[in-house]
Amino acid sequence: MMHPVIPYVIAAVLFGLGVYGVLARRNAILLLMAVELMLNAVNLVLVTADATVTAALPHTGGVFALFVIVLAAAEVGVGLAIVLQLYRLRQTVAVDDVQLSEDEEPQPVGTAS
Amino acid sequence: MTTADVLLVALGAVAVGSGVAVVTTRHVVRAGLWLVVALGAVAGLYLVLTAELVAWVQVLIYLGAVVVLLLFAVMLTRAPIGASPDLDRTRLPGVLVGGGAGIGLAALLIDAYRWSTVEVGSGVGAEAVGAAIFRGWVLPFELLSVLLLAALVGAIAVSRSDATAARSDATAAREGS
Lengths: 113, 177
Prior knowledge:
The complex is a heterodimer of chains A (113) and B (177). With 113 residues, chain A is mainly alpha-helical. Chain A contains three helices and no strands. In chain A, helix 1 (5-24) packs antiparallel against helix 2 (28-52). With 177 residues, chain B is an all-alpha fold.
């Protein structure tokens, strides 16, 4: 016996934390960590649904959670390659300092509060 | 409140608390270590929800590989060891959107499930999950292997050190002409 609302609410709160982290952090690596929190919230919803709903195809939620974990591993690999290349080119990993085009001067944006 | 409920609440409190630490701490390295605690607590939640295989894959891939990669990146980008005051930008939009997303989703799910109870079956073994993958989801599984290969090649291509040299050569040639 369990109440499915408990893990669902935990997942919702984790997702909100991840959204906050993506919007509030300046360091690109911390941004990726917040994305991991969001992916874990989604996985928690999938696994909870798998455990509590009687589906036509059994264990589909668990299978999808495994797929999401693999996608997260691929995402982190490519993301960190991009972050390291950014650091090599610009000597910074602050996402505010990234110039969007090569011509414009870097502008100080979003001073830390 | 049954035993499973108590375990879920306790592990959920650990996961949410360390999640807050991940997005608020001023130490970059500590954020990675708090992420270990958060992901471990989520793996514990999977165990309580009887998804054993997902829990152990979470421990292996997330705790074993993803966090180590993130900590490697922290080292390679020469993140400061101590507290750095400039990790956050203005917090208000993040609080508004993140809080809105979290509270909205929580309200939606609470409204959908109320205080209903379900019976949790015995553990789902690796055999059952494997059968589900290879009976129902073979095509996505194979596509995923192609995607992993593409991500691997892409990561190598992006992080090649001669890409930087080629770019500066191209810039120099354009400025010279």
